[in-house]
Structure formats: structure tokens, C-alpha cells
Amino acid sequence: MTIEVRSLTKVFEAGSRRNRRRIEAVHDISLTVGAGERVAYIGPNGAGKSTSIKMLTGVLHPTSGTANVLGMVPWQQRRALTRRIGALFGQRSQLWFELTPRETFRMLGAIFDLEPAAERERVGVLGELLDAADLFDTPVRSLSLGQRMRCELAACLLHEPSILFLDEPTIGLDLLAKQRFRELLVRLNEERGTTVFLTSHDVADIEHVAQRAVVINHGVVIYDAEVAAMRRTLLATKSVEVTLAEPSPPPEMDGVIVTANKDSSMSLVVDTTRCSIRDVLDHLLGRLSVTDISVTDPPLEQVIAEIYTVPRS
Amino acid sequence: MNARWPWVSVSSAARRVARDRGQLLFAAGFYVVVASVLAALWRAATEVNGGTVAGYSGLQLTWYVVAAEAVTIALNTRLIEVIGDDIASGAVAAELLRPAPVLGVRVCTELGRCLPRLGVCVAIGAVLATTTAGAPPDATALALAAPAVVLAVFCNLIAQHAFAGIAFWLRDARSMWFLYHKLVFVLGGMLLPLQVMPSWLHTVAAWLPFAAMAYVPARLASGHVEPQLLLVQLWWLGVMWWAARAVFNAGERRLQVVGG
Description:
heterodimer; A: about 30% strand; globular; B: two-stranded antiparallel sheet; 2 strands; about 70% helix
């Protein structure tokens, strides 16, 4: 296993000495991630995602529990581990603002023990891969957020890490930049086998990048499954859109709700625990003059929102 | 352990500042004003005091002032506050993702930022002192002052990191910034030579690390051939490095970064 976590717990202490409060950010989390997986680690604000990632990268020490990342205990062997992982915290920059990205890469290359020639070659490759070569000579403080994020990603890929930890990497990016970023992550994973472990509030990041979703809430893992399976199993409803040759009365079936019926189009929501989608299609095709029909899963956003509503046990 | 990153950190930061003419001009202008006024005041004081103050002539005090001000103005005066804010806000978390010590990289980068400003201030100070008061009082002492100014800046930078590390516990280093600068200004001999102070205060100040950050290079530049002062600086450099490392090591273990 690339990442193995057992009963990981983190408690923060807040407030004055007299009025000290204990905030349990992560509670007894256990999970494993195999090499080359693309995992989305998701949850609502304050769920404990960023705290978990910071423990897995060795930045934070846990209150209890164990973790093993690439055979190392992150908080005990942080410096050795940093040579093999890349981490991008969307809200915290690792670039020096007064330097250009190229100067930063030179410093990072020295810090990561890369030979100057190897570092220059790697920067060239990353410039092409990220379509960012023309940004590398502009001072970081003059870059837009999207441009800076591409340089941040280049910085964390400079030493060719085996695992990428990404904490809200697409925050603040425009649609096009997000799309390119996601494509790049999938490409890195498929071409180089880089394990991707990402948190995001953007459902499209999860949908387009992750194969597996681990959902955390109130510091506890509440769901862990393939993204496709999550969609299939968690909401037992399907949407049916029908186009008719002429206006027709809606079907009256147990478990079928008509959400719209106007002119020659009809929208239905089918509760598949009460009525099979096959029965609904047979009914529609047999009794109505259907010219077009589509069956879709509910949006992932809805699935995740459902999971978030699981109460804290 | 790779030995390349400290040099690359210092040189990258130094090159960037050296190219920033606006920043250098501002530092130079500020330095000229402060050093000229203080040197003129001290020369006036020596004249009304029969030619010397606490054993320093007007010429010596001028060289004292230009050296003491150069090592102070070369530094980012808000450094403690900046480090404290980076710790309290959790920005330091990104620096923990590198296989090099956070303290080492920070000190080297900051030293790189200071060196061009120090070079400019020292050059201007030498011209200013020579034209307004006369040639350096002693060539040997001046030669000793050259490494002393770099050691003073280095020692000051490390000490500021040690003091700023309090933010790992208090999450605010602003009060420490205020206190630290007052200590360097007075007990460090930046505003006045330690010999001007009452003897008990002089003794106390001489035993504190702040003297290594301003008094030592200024004392040497003022013509006193006292090479043992370089050893004092090296001693405090070692002590401050040990203290800053202990603070950062302990602080990094108890770092609290809540949220993204």
C-alpha cells in the first residue's frame, strides 16, 4: 500500500489556559490507498480533510493513531518523505513571491538535491507539460491566480514525486484552467503512475479526476467507494426525460414522480427501490408515442450532499 | 546533506534585491539621512565636551555611527512580525514540505536579501564618514570591521528568528518585535556606544547578545583594534543558532494549522 492509515486522530487545543477547548478535527480515521490510485478525499467545511492531508505529509503531528506513507511515518521522517511526495495546498503558496518561478525552481532544485542540468531539463519538461514556460520568467507576485497555480504545480512536480497530495488545488481557477488542471492530473497518473490524493469542494474535480471517493464528515470517514458506485448506490433515483409526438397524460405508477409535463416533453424521477426503470420504460414506450427518451443518474453533487447529511454518531 | 541549497538561497535572493533599484535607493536614502544626522549630533557633542565623549573623538564616533546604522538598516525592520505572521497563519506549512530545515532556508534567503542593502550602506557610509569627518581612524580595525558587519547581520537575523518563534506558542510575535528592536537600539549600541552608558549598564549590555549585532562592528570601525570582539560575535552566533533551532524544532512539532 502507498498510504496506510490506522485510527488517526488529531485534537487541536484552542482558547486561553483557563478556558481551553479541545477540537477534534480528525477522529479515528483508517484507510488505505494503493499505488497509482486517484482518490478524492471529500467532505464539507471543517470536516477534517486538510488536517488529514497535513498529517499524511508530516506537517502536523497526530494526537493518536499511525500512518505509513511510502513506508515512512510522515511526522517522524518528514524530510525523507518530502523527497518522494509532492503537495499543493491551494491556499498556501510554496513559491517565493519576489522571485520568478524559474529562480524558485533553482532554489527548490538545490533543496531537493537535483543536479543543475537535471533541474533545468525538468523545468523545460514541466513548462511544456503545463503550458507554462512563458510564465517562468515573470515574478510570482505579477502572476494571476491561474498562472500561479500552474507554477505551484510545477514546483511540486519538480522532484518527480510518487504521490501528489492536493488540497483544494483548483480553488479560484476559471473553468478553462480547472479543466486543464484536471486533464493534467489524469495524464500524470496514467503516464507516470503518480498516485493522486486530492480534496476539493468542486464536484467536477471529483467526477473528472477521481476513481475513488472517501467522504469524511465531523472528522470521521463515512463513505469509501468507487465514484461510479457511489453514484449508483447512494441515490436510488433516476431522472427520465421524454419527448413525445403529441401531448399525453402522465403515467400513474408507484414510485414515479412527474416533475414536469409541458407540451410534448415530460420529466420524471423514478425511485428504483419501488419501481424498476425497465417497468417505467416499458410503460412509456408501450402507451405513449415517444420520439426520444433519456435516462440519467442524479448529479454527483446531489449524491455527495446526501452523504454529508449523515448525522454524527 | 546537500551543501548547495544555502548558497543558491543566498545568491538567488541577493540577485533579486540587487536588481530592485527602487528598494536599494530607498534604503540608501534612508541610511544617508539617519547616519548623517546622528553623526553630526555626536560630532557636536564631542565639541562641547572638550573633543571626546566616553573616549571617542568626533572622527571615531562618525565611523561608529555609519557602521552601526549600516548593519541595522540593511535588515528588514519588520522581520519578526513577518515570520510571526507566517507561523500564526500557517503559511509556514508549505515550507515543511521540503527536505531542508525551515529555519535554514529562511535565514539564508533573508541573508541574501540583506547583503545587497548592506553593501550599498557600507559603501555610502565609508564615503560619508570620510568626507564629513576624515579617513578611517585605523586601517587594521577597519579590516576587522569588514567581517564584523556580515557577522552582525547574520547574528541579528538568527536572533530575530529565535524571537519570532514565540508565535508557535502565542500565535503573535508583534509584541516581541517591538521589544527586540528597543533592545538592539539601546543595549546593542546602535544609538550610542556602550561606553556612554553607566558602568553597570555597560557591563550588562556587554554580556548580552545584542552588542554582537551593532556595537561590535561599530566599535571596530571606530578604530579600536579588538579582534576578540569577532570571537564574541561567533559565540553569540552559535548560541543564537542553537536557540533558534531549538525554538523551531519544538515549534514545528506543535504547529497548529487549522483548515486549508
